[in-house]
Structure formats: structure tokens, C-alpha cells
Design a protein that fits this description.
By secondary structure, the protein is an alpha+beta fold. The chain is built from 1 helix and 5 strands, in the order E-E-E-E-E-H. The strands form 2 sheets. Strands 3-4-5 form a 3-stranded antiparallel β-sheet, with no helix packed on it. A two-stranded antiparallel sheet has the order 1-2. The chain has one domain.
Length: 86
Amino acid sequence: MPVVGLVVHGAALVLVVTRRKDEAIVIGEGIEIRVVRIGRDEVRLGITAPVEVAVHRREVYEEIRRENEAASAILADPRRVNRSSP
């Protein structure tokens, strides 16, 4: 039987479940996370999601977020926008 619990992580409440190899969890409609392989220091997950749902590793997501914030800051400052036209 899977172990289920709630854990406070920062300001969020996190659902914690136990899964074995080849077992999965489902999030909403059409998102499935399956345990593909379990190693000594890592777990390999397979993720099935609709094409319109972006799926990233946390470190990639954070880099995208930082780059988007930097681009927004440039666009928000009219002195930094290149005003030359072709």
C-alpha cells in the first residue's frame, strides 16, 4: 500500500507519496509521472503530458524564469530599448 502524507515545505503544503518502479501518479487530466528506474543516488522518471504543458527540470525552469525576468526588465526601461530602425 502506498504511503501518503502531507509535508510543509516553505509556504507550500506538499503531498508525499511512495511509488515503486513502474508505478505512477496522475496529475489532473493527461499528466502522468512514472518511476522508470531507481538507482543508488537518483530516480529516473517518465513524464507524459499534453504538448501544451511545458515540462522542465527545476534548474532549467529557474534559468528560463531568470532570463525572462531580465528581458522584461530591459523592455520595461525605455532607455535600454534599441530605438534604431532598419
